[in-house]
C-alpha cells in the first residue's frame, strides 16, 4: 500500500495518520484467536497489572513467538507506508500488546512520548521511528481509547520527563503536569476510535495516554515500533523483548499471508 501525498502531509501535520479497517474481519479473527495464548505466557515478556495480577498489562515481543503477529508485522500494508514516512528501510525495535482488560483491570497510562525510553534507555539517536497501533478489538469511547495530543510532535522531544516505575521491569517516562496542560490547551486531545482492524501510524514523539478501562470489554491494541535503519539503538541493556538488536531491513511478505491463516 502506498500512501498518497495528502496522507503523508496529514501525518507530518498532525503527527498521526489513522487508517480505518486496514485489516479485514478474517485477519482480525486470526489475531483475536491468538491473543489468549500470548497473554497466558509465563515469561518476563508479560507484564501484569499492579492491582490485578491475573490481567496482563503488556505482552512484549509477540511478533517473535506468534506466527499471526509475525505475519502482521511484515504486511506490505504496514511496511510500505513506513518506508515512505521515514524515507528508508526499517527494522522492528519493539512490539507490545496492550490488552487493556475490562472491569477496571486495564489501568491508565500517564501522558508520555514513547521516544523517551528509547532515547534514555535504549540509546536511539533521533525520534525517527513510527509507532503503529493495530486495533485488535473495536476501540470505542466507552472502552478507554488511546488519547493523543495532535501536533504535539511539533514541540520536539520534551525534556520535562519524569521517571515513573509503571510495573515490574518496565519504566515509563511521563511528562510533567505543566507541560501536559500547555500542550492540551494548545492542541486539544483526540481519542482514537474505530473498528477492530484499524491502524494508526503515530509519530514517536506525539504525546499520548489513556484512562482506566471501566467497561466490561477488552480493548486490545498491538503496538509495533519500527525504527529507521540509520537510527539503530546503541544500548543493549534491556532484554530481547523490549529492545530488539536485529537491525536487518525488513522485507514485506505477501499481503495475503495473514489471511491465509484463517
Ligand atoms: O493503549 C493504551 O491505552 C496506552 C498505551 C501506551 O500509551 C503505550 O503503550 O505507550
Label the CATH architecture: Sandwich
| Helix content, binned percent | 10-25%
Order of helices and strands: HEHEEHHHEEHEEEEHEEEE
Helix-strand category? alpha+beta
- Number of structurally distinct domains: 1
Explain what you see.
- The protein is α+β, with helices and mostly antiparallel strands and 262 residues long.
- The chain has a single domain, classed as Jelly Rolls (Sandwich), CATH 2.60.120.
- The chain is 24% helix and 26% strand.
- The chain has 7 helices and 13 strands.
- The protein has helices at 5-14, 25-39, 62-65, 67-73, 76-86, 115-120, 177-187; strands spanning 16-19, 46-48, 56-60, 90-98, 109-112, 129-135, 146-148, 161-167, 170-175, 190-192, 199-203, 208-210, 221-228.
- A 7-stranded antiparallel sheet has the order 1-11-6-13-4-3-2.
- The structure holds 2-oxoglutaric acid.
- 2-oxoglutaric acid is lined by residues 98, 100, 109, 114, 146, 208, 210, 221, 223.
Topology, please?
Blueprint: H1 5-14, E1 16-19, H2 25-39, E2 46-48, E3 56-60, H3 62-65, H4 67-73, H5 76-86, E4 90-98, E5 109-112, H6 115-120, E6 129-135, E7 146-148, E8 161-167, E9 170-175, H7 177-187, E10 190-192, E11 199-203, E12 208-210, E13 221-228
Antiparallel strand pairs: 1-11, 2-3, 3-4, 4-13, 5-12, 6-11, 6-13, 7-10, 7-12, 8-9
The structure holds 2-oxoglutaric acid (AKG).
Structural descriptors:
4-stranded antiparallel β-sheet; 7-stranded antiparallel β-sheet; binds 2-oxoglutaric acid; alpha+beta; 7 helices; 262 residues; Jelly Rolls
